Every structure is written in structure tokens, then in C-alpha cells.
Amino acid sequence: MIQSTRYDMLPAAEWSGDQRVGVGGLVVSTCRDLTRAANESARGMETEEGGLTMRWSAVKRAIMAMPLFALLVTACSESGSEDSALDCGAFEFIIPYAPGGGSDQQFRRLQESLEESLGASINPVYMEGADGALGWKNLADAEPDGCTVGNVVSPNIMELTILGEEVGFHGMEDFEYIAWTETTPNAVAVAQDSPYETIDDYIQEAEANPGDLTIAGVGDTIAIGEILAGTGVDLSYVPVSGGVGSIVPQLQGGHVDAAIFGARHVMQHQDQMRALAITGSESSPVLEDVPTFEEAGYDGINLTSSWGIAGPAGMPDEAIAEWNEAILTAMDDEAVHDALLEEALTPLEQDVDEALAFSEELFEAAEDAAPHADEIEQLDEE
Fold it and tell me: What is the pTM for the complete model shown?
């Protein structure tokens, strides 16, 4: 439980993030520290009160309603509205894929906390099509005032630039990368009733019948090229632009032999598919029985999938910093962490400089894999 002592407090309207106040044994100097204090106190309540059955978010809301926290919450809200670099009645969040997919789920996990931090509603705008290019073109063209941001996915957004697609934007130059929130290995998966029990089964069939086996993906040309180079087989690529949700029925119906996407999607559709192998150098804690390509004897297959949030180029530094702070506050929530880990996603917490450096690393990795994309035989889009 919270153990508090008496503090001499300024009136809420005069309090600012520069004041340092003790809360439950923690020192609060910013509004983000306030949320962290609530998180820490909620952890204490769950630990000390063994019979407590409320969900984490409910515990935190109860703490935030306590008099000392409530006073600081009001102060944060009033101070933030005066000092904010974001003059937006509401925000738009562009999602370049269909509702229900990984990009939509990323937004939904963070939405409540982001709205609380930014003090306004955030409206999702779905703009699916052209492997995400439609949504990202609209994001790149948006007014750079901080009122419009969107979801970004790597290597998808990088690939559109690297492969010379005429999409009207550059994956690095036309965006301000605010933060990346999660990453996961990619998985090659098959339907539950597929005859291929292991990645070796699939590769051996591809060796025996070059070009006959199909593999579907969403903006995954580079990733598939890397697999072809690492395994030495010929596969036929079937691009799907509507997101992973559009691939699942194709896979389950036997229209494609396999698919590639973030390993988290295997966890969400376990009753319909199973993974044969994952990319990267480390096994997944939630897919313990699935080998990496390296463990299966195929080297150099390392591209992973990552999800982040970006705005259009030219967005003011102050607006970027405010969005980044709101994202970090949301990522502090243990419920968000738990949800990510359960879906084979690794949580990321980055300041603005770290987000830019990570973006550059992702772009470089995609560039290194890009030459293999020329080896792909591409079929008509599903």
C-alpha cells in the first residue's frame, strides 16, 4: 500500500513538472514520473494484498484517484495544456493496414494512455493498400504540426524505398521517427493441416520442385529474398496488401503453401497455423519448440519485424518530444508489457535519439538484404 507523509504543496494551477515532490517513497519531477509512481505503487498493492483481484489498470486508476495523486494529475493536465506544443482539438493516427492487424493492435494497446497524456482523443484512420504505401504517402503529406502521426512497420516501409518503388515518399527522409515500441522475429508458418512438419520438409520439397511452392507476405519481398539466399531454394512469392488478416484465410484454405510475418501472428492464430522456423539469432520464449533458421542449418536469415510511430518530416522538435514522452508513459504500463510478451513481442522504450538510431539500423539491415530480392519470382497479388 502507499505510505505517504505530509507535503507542502503548491496549488494545482501553479504546479509544474519542475517541482520535485515525494510520492509513495518516489520522487516525482515530471508528469511521466507521476505515472511511473502509480505503476510502482500498483505493483506494491498487488504484492502486499494477495487477495487483490482487480486488473492492473483498475489498480492504477484507483491509485491515481487518491488525493495526492489526484492533485498532481490535475496539475499535470493544467500545466500540460498551457505548455503543450500540440495545438490539436483531436489527433489522427494513420494505420496503413486493415483493422485487427498488428498495426491496429499496436495502436489499441497504447490509445488510452496516449489520450490521457496528450489530453485529446486520437482517431484511427485506416488507409490500407499497396503494401502500406497508401497510408504512408498520406502520412508523409500530412501537415507537420504534430496533430497527425501514424504507425510504421519495418522492413515494410524501408522496402518500398530500397526497391525503388514509385510511392511518393522516402522511408527515412520523409518521416520523423518518434519511437519504436515493439519488435519480433519473423516466422515462416504453414496451416495446421500442412504436410510440412519442419522447415527441412518445406525446403526439401522446394528443392525437388523449384518455383512450385508459394509463400505469401505483406511487404516482405526483402525478407523472402533473404530466405531464398539463405536456403538456396526457389519459391514463388504471393504479395498480400490487406495485412496479415488477409493472409490467414489464404493459408488456411490451401491457396498458399506458407507465409511469412511477425512471429506474434502465429501466437494469435495458433488454431489455424504453426511456425516452422523464425528469423534472428535467438529463440523465442513463447515459441520454444520452433528453431531459428540458424539452428536448422540455414545462415544469414536475420531480418525481424518492428512497429513504431512516426510523423511527417518537418514536425517541430517540441511536438516530437511531447509525443515521445506520451509513448514512453504508455510503455511504462505493466499491462502493456505483459500483453506484448504474451504475443512474442519484445517491448522497446526509446527516447527520440534512440528511435532515430534504431530506424537507421533497420534501414541498413534492409539494404543489406535487398540484393536478394531480385531472386524472387512474384505471382499476382491476392
Answer: 0.69
